[in-house]
Amino acid sequence: MAIFRTRTRAGAVTRVAAALATSVVIGLSTAVVPSPVSASPIPSPASTATHLYVAPWGRDSWPGTLERPFATPGRAQRAVRERTQRMTADLVVNLRGGTYTLKAPLRLSQAAGDSGRGGHRVIYQAYGYGTPRQERVTLSGGRQVSGWRPDRRLRGFWRADVGALETRQLYVDGRRAARLAGEGTGFDGTLKATSTGYVTTSTAPRGWRGPADIEFVYRSGYVEGRCGVAGVSGLGRRTAITMDQPCWDLVQALYGDPELLETPVSVENSPSFAPRPGGWYLDRSRPGHHELLYFPRPGEDMSRARVVAPVLESLVTGTGRPGRPLHDIGLRGLTFAYATWLAPSEPAGFPAAWSMYLRPGPGEDARLLTVPGTVAFRTAERITLAGNRFTHLGAQALELSADSSYNVVDGNVVSDVSDGGILMGVVPPEEKGTNRGNRITNNWIHHIGADYHAASGIWDTATQETTIAHNQVDNVPYSGILSGPSEDLRGVMRRNRILGNRVFATNRLLMDGGGIYLRGEQGTSYADGAVVAGNAVTSSRYGIWNVGIYTDDSTKWVTVDRNAVYDYVASIGGCSEEWGGRPVRHVRYRGNFWDDAVPEWLERRAFPGAWPPADRQNPDEGCGDPHDLEFTANTLLPPRHPGRTCATTPTCAAILSNAGPLPPYRRHPGMPATP
After folding, report:
1. Residues pairing with 93 in the sheet
2. Beta partners for 624?
3. What share of the chain is helix, strand, coil (3-state, %, to 5)?
4. Residues 598 and 555 sit within 8 Å (Cβ to Cβ)
5. β-bridge mates for residue 538, sequence order
6. Which of 493, 480, 550 minimizes the C-alpha distance to 521?
7. Distance of CA 122 to the CA centre of its chain
8. pTM here?
9. Are strands 326-332 and 158-163 parallel, antiparallel or unpaired?
10. Beta bridge partners of 240
11. How many CB atoms sit inside 10 A of residue 392's CB?
12. Strand partners, 635
C-alpha cells in the first residue's frame, strides 16, 4: 500500500497509514523542447460525410434528416449502428440546440457496432460545430424539480416532492447549492472516538433530524474523506454516535489518527443545522416519497427558479474488450451536465484521498478504487473529445482507462465538478495496462473538486508516450497536474511529457500537493524518462507546504527544463523516501527560472529546492536526501516580486506567454482569453 504523510510546521513527516498516493509522471525523448502541439482546432468533417440530425422538436419515428430529425441521441445511435458496417465516409450525428435529458447513459460499445470503420469516424457534435453558427447542446442527466412551496415547519425553507429521487447535488438557476452543514461538529462538548463511533458530552446530537443522513467530513494535510452516521442514542449525560460500518473501520485503518477523527471539519446533511442561503437537504424519511428542502439565496424566487437535481451517475460510456477496442469516435461541441455519484452515500462511505477511496476486500484487505469519470472510455482508441464543456457533475469529469491509447482530448472546458477533471491510465483497482500515445491539449480546467477536495485537474496515473500540453489549470483545491500511479507500478511509465501548461492557484484548500506533481519511476534513463518543459507554474502560496514542480516519493529519471516557477511555498523539491527504499533519484534541472522558495520551517540545502530531511529519531518515517540531482543554467528570481522580474526578462517572459492554451483556442467562447 502507498503511504499518506502529514507534514508539520517543524518539518517532520508522519505516516498516516494508508492506501493511496499520487504523483506525476512524464517521459519523452532526449529533446527537451518537443515539437509543438497542433495550433488549430480539429477541423469539421469533409462535406462527403453522411449526416444525421437530432432536435428537441424532432421525432424518433422520423428519418433523421435536417428537415425531419430524430428526437433523441439514443435513436440516432441506433441509426448509426445500422450504417457502420458499410461506412464509406465519416458518419456525423448533428444535434440541434437545446437540452437532451437522458433517461440512461449513452453507451457506446465496440461489440454493438458503435465504432467507425475503414478509417472513417462516427462523430456526435453540436450542429454547426466549428462555425459561428454552432448551437448550444447539453446532454443532461438531471431532472427539473418544480412544485415548490413554503415549508410550514421550517421557517424560510421551501419544499418540493421528488418521489424516489436519490442525489448528492442540487443546482438552482445554474448554481451549485450546498448541503446543510455545521462547522466542525456543529455542537459544543468533547468528542471521543470509540470502536463504534463517538461518545460526546453534548446532548445536541439527540435532537438531530434524519441522523442516518448525516456525514462527518475529515480533512488533514492532503487527505479528505467522509463517513455517515448510523444512529444516535443517550448514555446518561453523554451521547453515543454510532457510525456506519464498514466505513468506520475503514477510516480508522486508513487515517490511523484519533485526533483527526475527533476534529471533523464539518458535519453535514441535516435540517437541524443552521440554515444558510443556498442550503438544501433531501428528506428521505418516507421511502418512495422523498422531499427536497431548500433555503433560497437572497433574490431567488422559488416559483420561477429553475432547479435541477442530477439523477444519472454517468452520461456517456464507451467500452471495448481486449484486442477489440472501441475506436474512431468523436464528441465535439457538447455540454455534459447534471450527473451525480452515489457511492459516498453507501454504508462504506468515502474513506479517501487523491480521488481514491477504500472498499472492503477479500479477507482483511481493502480494495482501492478510483472516483469514476462521468464521461468514461475504457479500452478505447482514437477517440476525440474536442470543444466540449463538462460542468455540474458529481464525480470526475472524464476518464480514459483500461488500455486506452491514441486518444485526443483537445480544447475542452471543465469546471464545477465534484471531483477531478481528466483521469487516464492504470486506475485502481487495476495494477497493469497499456495506455499509450494519448494527447491532453489546450483544455481549461478550473474550479473543480467542489465536493471531494483531494482532486487534481489532470491525473495521469500510469501511461506511456502521453502528451499533456498547453492546458490551463487554475483554482483547484489540491494539485494541478498529477502524474504517477497510486502504487509503485514500476516499469510502466516512459516517454511522457508535460509541456507548456499554465498552472496557478492550486492547493487552495489542501496541502502537500503542487502545480505539477510527480512520483514513481518515469523510465529507465533520461532518454526515455519524463520531460517537464516550458510550463508556467505560479501564484499558489497557500498553507504550509506545496511545491510548484514537486518530485515526490520515488521519482526517477525526470528532466525539468525551461519552466517558470514562483510564488509557491516551495518552488521545487519533494520527499525522498529513503526509509522505504524509494528515494528521489536522477532529476535534472536545466534553464529554469524560479525564486527557489523554501518554507520557513525547513532548512535550506546546499543545492536548490525544498527537501525535507530524514527523521533521526524515527528512521522508518520522514524523508531523506535526494540522489543524483543535476542543476544547469537555472536563473534565480528575486524573492520579492519574482513575477515582475520574470515578465521583464525576455526568456522568462516567453515561457509565460507561450504557456496555456495556444492562441487560436483563447479566442473560443468560454476559454481563457490569456494564459
Report:
1. 52, 124
2. none
3. 10, 40, 50
4. no
5. 504, 566
6. 493
7. 28
8. 0.93
9. unpaired
10. 199, 233
11. 28
12. 593
668 vs 130: CA distance, rounded Å: 10
Among 666, 546, 531, 507, CA closest to 592: 531
**Which grid coordinates are listed for 146?**
418544480
Q: Return the pLDDT at 42.
A: 40
C-alpha cell at 310: 442530477
Burial annotation 214-243 (CB, 10 A radius, 16+ → b, else e): bbbbbbbbbbbbbbbbbebeeeeeebbbbb
Q: Which residue type, as a one-letter code, is found at position 15? A: R
d(CA 468, CA 33): 13
- What is d(CA 370, CA 482) in angstroms, rounded to the nearest whole number? 14
- CA quadruple 51, 56, 58, 63: dihedral, nearest 10: 30
For residue 480 the three cell numbers come to 494541478
CB atoms within 10 A of CB 631: 15
Helix (H) or strand (E) holding 316: strand 316-319
Sequence letter at residue 337: A
Q: What is the grid cell recorded at 594?
A: 524560479
Instruction: Give which of 328, 336, 410, 335 is closest to 373, Cα–Cα.
Output: 336
Residue 447 has a CB neighbour count (10 Å cut-off) of 17
Query: Of all residues in the chain, what percent carry a pLDDT higher than 90?
Result: 84
Residue that the C-alpha cell 455519484 belongs to: 341
At 665, which helix (H) or strand (E)? helix 663-666
| CB neighbour class for 132 (10 Å; exposed up to 12, middle 13-18, buried from 19) | exposed
What secondary structure, in 3-state letters, does 97-166 show? CEEEECCCCEEEECCCCCCCCCCCCEEEEECCCCCCCCCCEEEECEEEECCCEECCCCCCCEEEEEECCC
Provide the CB-side half-sphere exposure for 611 (13 A, CA). 20
pLDDT value at position 488? 76
The residue extents of the domains of the chain are 1-37+470-675, 50-99+109-130, 146-309
How many H-runs (helices) and E-runs (strands) does the chain carry?
Answer: 6, 55
User: In this predicted structure, what is the pLDDT of residue 190?
Assistant: 92
Closest to 538 measured CA to CA, from 508, 504, 570: 504
The CA-CA-CA angle for residues 305, 310, 311, to 5°, reads: 130
Give the separation between CA 460 and CA 479, rounded to whole angstroms.
Answer: 12
Is the Cα dihedral 282, 286, 287, 290 positive or negative?
negative
pLDDT bin (cut points 50, 70, 90) of residue 365 is confident
Type of residue at 256: G
Average pLDDT of the chain, as a whole number: 91
Q: 592 φ, ψ to 5°?
A: -85, 160
22-46 burial: b if 16+ Cβ within 10 Å, else e: bbbbbbbeeebebeebbeebbebbe
pLDDT score for 15: 28
Question: For the CA atoms of the chain, what is the radius of gyration?
Answer: 25
Which residues have a Cβ under 8 Å from the Cβ of 242 and sit 6 or more positions away?
196, 197, 229, 230, 231, 232, 233
Q: Which tens digits make up the pLDDT trace of 572-581?
A: 999 998 877 8
Of 544 and 616, the one with more pLDDT: 544
Angle ∠(92,96,98) on CA atoms, nearest 5: 135
The closest alpha carbon to 199, from 189, 191, 207, belongs to: 191
